[in-house]
Amino acid sequence: MFGITAFPLFVGAVFLLNVTPGPDTAYIVGRSVAQGRAAGVMSALGVSAGCCVHSLATAFGLTALLAASPAAFGVIQYAGAAYLVWLGLRLLWQRPGVAAQAAPPPRRGLRGLFMQGFLTNVLNPKVILFFVSFFPQFVDARAGHQAAAFLLLGAVMVLMSTAWNTLVAWLAGTLTRRAGRMPRLKCWLDRTVGTAFIALGARLAMMQR
């Protein structure tokens, strides 16, 4: 259908990719640990929105053009790395008292968390390379509806990823609720998450194509 090949294999591969921890999972868990379940879920939805952008770009050939341009690829790589480092530094610089007594994010804060999740995904060049290399394996090059095939595969991946990431965010946030009653532990978790974000940013900046 629509030129899609080996669809069951695609679903199985996406499932395995979801359950294997990666930068998106680390970011979502970090947000759940630092700010609670609502923050983690909104971050997961933001990451899914970023995947929607990559799916559209792949369907219309924009991702391939971007991956083929060293200059454009480098801009996205370093912008994504700088953004992760900035998020990590914000957690490290946060005052312990504020971290320990943090309330659930307000609606405006939730929108900000959604955008942060969105940007961490869109500005990750690894995701661009993934879409360029992974999706074409499941689309018949002779098919007349390749764009529709890419869009359908992207929709399936987004739905599966959203379900998994939301579950991860909910579980991480639930397990961390008790830590909110222990200021020292909460402060330690914030520092750990902030350091992890900085490490992810540094790793992204040094990534070789």
Automatic annotation (TrEMBL):
Organism: Cupriavidus malaysiensis
Residue intervals passing through the bilayer: 6-29, 41-65, 71-93, 113-135, 147-176
Name the UniProt record assigns to this protein: Lysine transporter LysE
Membrane-topology descriptor: Multi-pass membrane protein
Keyword DNA repair in annotation: no
Pfam families documented for this protein: LysE
Record localization: Cell membrane
Chief location bin: membrane
Alphabetically ordered keywords of this record: Cell membrane, Membrane, Transmembrane, Transmembrane helix
